[in-house]
From TrEMBL:
Entries under InterPro entries matching the protein: NUDIX_hydrolase-like_dom_sf, NUDIX_hydrolase_CS, NUDIX_hydrolase_dom
Cofactor(s) needed: Mg(2+)
Top-level taxon of the source organism: Bacteria
Ranges where the Nudix hydrolase domain occurs: 15-146
Gene3D superfamilies: Nucleoside Triphosphate Pyrophosphohydrolase
Protein name: Nudix hydrolase domain-containing protein
Residue ranges that the Swiss-Prot or TrEMBL entry lists as coiled coil: none
PANTHER family: ADP-RIBOSE PYROPHOSPHATASE YJHB-RELATED, GDP-MANNOSE MANNOSYL HYDROLASE
Keywords of this entry: Hydrolase
GO MF annotation: an example: hydrolase activity
Lineage summary: Bacteria, Bacillati, Actinomycetota, Actinomycetes, Mycobacteriales
Amino acid sequence: MLTDNRKVDPVEDAKYRSLVGVHLVLIDERGRVLLGRRVNTGFGDGLFHVPAGHLEAGESVIDGLIREANEEIGIEIPCEAFEFVHVMHSGAKDGRVQMFFRTRHWNGHVTNREPDKCSELRWFDPQNLPTDIVDYCRQALAAITAGEAFSLYGWDES
C-alpha cells in the first residue's frame, strides 16, 4: 500500500490544478466556422477566436458549453448536438486543458451578446481562416480539420 505523508499547502497545491477551457466550433449550413474578434479581455485582444470560456465549479463540460453559447452568442444547443473533436494540453504555467466540441445544430439566431468583449462575429471557411487569429485556436482548428483529436501547445519539445 502506498501512502503519501506530504503536507500540502492548499495554496501551493492549487497551482497544479488545470483550468479547463470549453470551445465551441459552430458550423453553419455552408460549412463555415464562427469566430469572434476579442476586445477588452486581456488575452488575444484584436484577434479572432471561437466562442469559448472556462468551466465553473461543479459544471460539466456540456453544461459549460451550453452556458457559454447562450452568454456569448445567444443560442441554445441541445446536449445531444455536441460532437467532441479535439483536446489540447497547453504548456502554460497553469496547465490548461482546452476541449473543443463541434455542432451544426442550435436554436435561435447567432447574436453578439458580449460587445464589451467581442467587437464582431464572422463566419469563415475552415480552409481559409484569417491571419489574425489566436495561435492556439488556429492550431486546434487545423488539427480538427485534419481529424486529429489531440495536440500539445506551448510545451518545450526538446
